[in-house]
Automatic annotation (TrEMBL):
It comes from the Eukaryota. Its EC number is 3.6.5.5. Residues 783-799 have a biased composition (Polar residues). It holds the Pfam family GED. Belongs to the TRAFAC class dynamin-like GTPase superfamily. Dynamin/Fzo/YdjA family. One of its GO terms (cellular component) is microtubule. GO terms for biological process: receptor internalization; synaptic vesicle budding from presynaptic endocytic zone membrane. This is Interferon-induced GTP-binding protein Mx. Residues 771-780 have a biased composition (Pro residues). Residues 763-806 are annotated as: Disordered. One of its GO terms (molecular function) is GTP binding. It comes from Scophthalmus maximus (Turbot). Keywords: Cytoplasm, Endocytosis, GTP-binding, Hydrolase, Microtubule, Motor protein, Nucleotide-binding. It is found in: Cytoplasm.
Length: 806
């Protein structure tokens, strides 16, 4: 075969592929191979059958190759075939090989022209082949037939691209000689992924079917439409020959005779034909494999290194050894306890970057969700004042109260403190849920032993529930302690005197109002920014409150309704002095207008809070609501409201501080301590150590897969170590101008006249024509094998005789 130093290289790479296949996957390694690309009926299958010397591929009209066929050719003393999906079965009848390919294709694609990217692996051992690994891909089609989808063209192109885009794949672009070469789909696809032409070899088929007077001499000489690696011409059997069962050996002899006798090709007969193509591919693939060996070795070593630690552990594991089971149980529980603690401490080996987990989620509950739950319980302001009002009046009974009663303050405060129990219990629920979620997340590390996982989960979850119950009792006790004694001497409590002062300073309401009773001569109605406090009503030019227009004291002021005018869209009320004094300049009353009825009611309620009440209307009793009849009562309500706010702010701060500490101590730390010190003892107390350490079927399969993969990688590295790279190689030809190949999305037809011009040597007038380039070097010495030798080897084979199994 030549290239002696590496003549076993392709079989070794096939061994490498077998080793990696034994691992159940290819470890992300793309092995060197030759992909055969071309349109439908371009002659791809015929080229492969000529390589083998046997009819073994399905035939028919339309798309026949509907799944990629990975074909490994191995030189051997006996002839047989084997499929990867039929391990251990040898096929000596190649008609059976054809039937098996058809059956396996139908298994995934159906019987109506569907396609699938899942490859079929076929290995053929024969004394009549050179070592090659080829991939026969579906022919490029344009129009869907049968049950093919409407985008069949793009599906096939995507499937082809999955193979030829890999740098370790040589591309065999097959184009019939009786079609436009410049419009070849195979060459366009190759150009897309291999623009420099370093991996593309052109094959011209059907040279014997060209129109009379035309030939492809200049194309095969790489003078017309050049490729970097050039073209090789072949002559396959015609459909008539196939139907007539013409023997492939006879076809090869006819091919040789055609090239030797044709005036355009006889001078290059040694550089065309199927045997030369086979030798060239063998040489190119061998060189390609040798060039990629360093990357192979590096990738395999990194894969092996990643598996070493796990493989060593699995190799030492003995499921039937009680001592080893006990040791493994101890190690697993200790490791799980450490991992569980790390999740809360934030020192885990893997940092989550997508979501919060473990301790971070509980921290968010402590400082975001729990304070939010406390804020949510703040009651409605009107409801709070009504409760205070009723409390004061109920405490006074039939008497008229002169002072603010302490009992009303205590009653309201205790009611507010009691309402804290709900958010605190919800807080405990949230933390308990996060603890159990974390247990579920960490427990997956024990999934190799289902019984151990289930028992650990049960014991730890029960402990969390028990600590949760203790925590609830403690929190209830904390709430009861706060209810037991209202400490009005707390340093942060404002006290009664400060509450009265605050009452005088507090802003009750702000908003825009229009003074509507100012005459036109004095400027007319204007809108101002009003601020109402317990002592005064002030208005400013705007809401920045920089320029104060007036401040009206609230003493002796009353509130009066004003009927809305027929054309007015405003809602109006008035304030006046009960002693008939002017309230503003020379005005006895001040009419204030707002934009909506709700706004009007809101201002009236605010004025009532400030002690400004409606005037009595004869025959209708007091116009004020029941809850605001007494100005003194309203001031007492406001005073207690301020006192309640001050005291509850102390309670809120205390609860926000104590609750996380209580839960941290009684739940989180207690559970962590239990896992690290008590969990193992409770597991041993079950008395079922052997049952706890019973492996799941998935874990057993994973362990065997890791060991198998580890052994496969070691074997693959051993195979690569056997390969000698001290060998001669054929240098890559110099670059050529391949701009004549259009992108795959457009086409540029090449007429048969252009091929005819090649006979006379006329210069074709096409874009992208390149000057002549040197012919591809002819192998000499040990690498050169004559066509006659190869044909004689094929001629020694019996015609379609069944081969004897080895």
């Amino acid at each position: 075969m030549g290239n002696r130093g590496m003549e076993e290289l392709i079989p070794l790479v096939n061994r490498l592929q077998d080793a990696l296949s034994g691992a159940g996957q290819s470890c992300g390694l793309h092995l060197p191979q030759v992909a055969v690309v071309g349109g439908q009926s371009a002659g791809k299958s015929s080229v492969l059958e000529h390589f083998v010397g046997r009819d073994f591929l399905p035939r028919g009209s339309g798309i026949v190759t509907r799944r990629p066929l990975i074909l490994q050719l191995l030189s051997a003393h006996t002839e047989y075939a084997e499929f990867l999906h039929c391990k251990g079965k040898e096929f000596t009848d190649f008609d059976e090989v054809c039937k098996e390919i058809e059956a396996e294709t139908r298994r995934l694609t159906g019987s109506n022209k569907g396609i699938s990217p899942v490859p079929i692996n076929l290995r053929i051992h024969s004394p009549h082949v050179l070592n090659l690994t080829l991939v026969d891909l579906p022919g490029i089609t344009k129009v869907p037939v049968g049950d093919q989808p409407v985008d069949i063209e793009y599906q096939i192109r995507d499937m082809i691209m999955q193979f030829i885009c890999k740098e370790n794949c040589l591309i065999l672009a097959v184009t019939p000689a009786n079609t436009d070469l410049a419009n070849s789909d195979a060459l366009k696809l190759a150009k897309d992924v291999d623009p420099q032409g370093q991996r593309t070899i052109g094959v011209i088929t059907k040279l014997d079917l060209m129109d009379e007077g035309t030939d492809a001499r200049h194309i095969l000489e790489n003078r017309l439409l050049p490729l970097r690696r050039g073209y090789i011409g072949v002559v396959n059997r015609s459909q008539k020959d196939i139907d007539g069962k013409k023997d492939i050996k006879a076809a090869l002899l006819a091919e040789e005779k055609f090239f030797l006798s044709h005036p355009a090709y006889k001078h290059m007969a040694e550089r065309v034909g199927t045997p030369y193509l086979q030798r060239t591919l063998n040489q190119q693939l061998t060189n390609h494999i040798r060039d990629t060996l360093p990357a192979f070795r590096s990738h395999l070593q990194s894969q092996l290194l990643a598996l070493n630690k796990e493989a060593v552990e699995y190799r030492q594991y003995s499921p039937d050894d009680p001592a080893h089971r006990t040791k493994t149980l101890l190690q697993l529980v200790q490791r799980w306890a450490v991992d569980f603690e790390k999740v809360f401490d934030g020192s885990g080996d893997k940092v989550e970057t997508v979501n919060l987990s473990g301790g971070a989620r509980i921290n968010r509950i402590f400082h975001e969700q729990f304070p939010y739950e406390l804020v949510k319980i703040e009651c409605d302001e009107r409801k709070m004042r009504r409760e205070i009002n009723y409390a004061i009046r109920n405490i006074h009974g039939v008497r008229t109260g002169l002072f603010t009663p302490d009992m009303a303050f205590e009653a309201i405060v205790k009611k507010q403190i009691s309402r804290l129990k709900g958010p605190c219990m919800k807080f405990i629920d949230m933390v308990s849920k996060e603890l159990i979620t974390t247990v579920y997340q960490c427990i997956n590390k024990l999934s190799s032993f289902p019984k151990l996982r289930d028992e650990t989960e049960r014991i730890v979850t029960n402990e969390i529930r028990e600590q949760e119950s203790k925590c609830r009792d403690q929190v209830s006790l904390l709430i009861d302690i706060q209810l037991a004694y209202i400490n009005t001497k707390h340093e942060d409590f404002i006290g009664f005197t400060n509450a009265v002062y605050i009452l005088s300073q507090v802003v009750i309401r702000k908003g825009w109002l229009t003074i509507s009773n100012i005459g036109i001569m004095k400027g007319g109605a204007k809108e101002y920014w009003f601020i109402l406090t317990a002592e005064s009503l002030s208005w400013f030019k705007d809401d920045e409150e920089k320029e104060k227009k007036y401040m009206l004291p609230l003493d002796n002021l009353k509130l009066r309704d004003v009927e809305r005018g027929f054309m007015s869209s405003k809602f109006v009320f008035a304030v006046f002095n009960t002693e008939l004094r002017n309230v503003y300049k020379d005005y006895k009353w001040l009419e204030l207008a707002c934009n909506s009825l709700d706004e009007l009611d809101s201002w009236k309620a605010s004025l009532l809070r400030a002690g400004v009440y409606p005037e009595k209307v004869d025959g209708q009793g007091n116009g004020a609501p029941e809850s605001f009849r007494d100005p003194q009562l309203e001031r007492q309500v406001e005073t207690i409201r301020n006192l309640v706010d001050s005291y509850m702010s102390i309670i809120y701060r205390t609860v926000r501080d104590l609750m996380p500490k209580t839960i941290m101590h009684l739940m989180i730390n207690s559970v962590k301590e239990f896992i690290s010190s008590e969990l193992l003892a409770q597991l041993y107390a079950l008395g079922e150590c052997s049952a706890l350490m019973h492996e799941s079927p998935e874990q057993q399969g994973h362990r065997e897969e890791v060991l198998r993969k580890h052994a496969a990688l070691k074997e693959a590295l051993t195979v690569i170590g056997e390969i000698s790279t001290s060998t001669c190689t054929t240098p890559l030809p110099p670059p050529v101008d391949s701009s004549w190949i259009q992108p795959s999305s457009c086409s540029s037809p090449l007429s048969p006249t252009l091929l005819k011009n090649s006979v006379t040597g006329a210069k074709p007038a096409i874009r992208g024509h390149a000057p002549p380039v040197p012919r591809m070097p002819i192998p000499t010495g040990p690498t050169a094998v004559s066509r006659t030798d190869g044909l004689q080897q094929l001629a020694s084979q019996p015609t379609r005789a069944p081969c004897v199994p080895r």
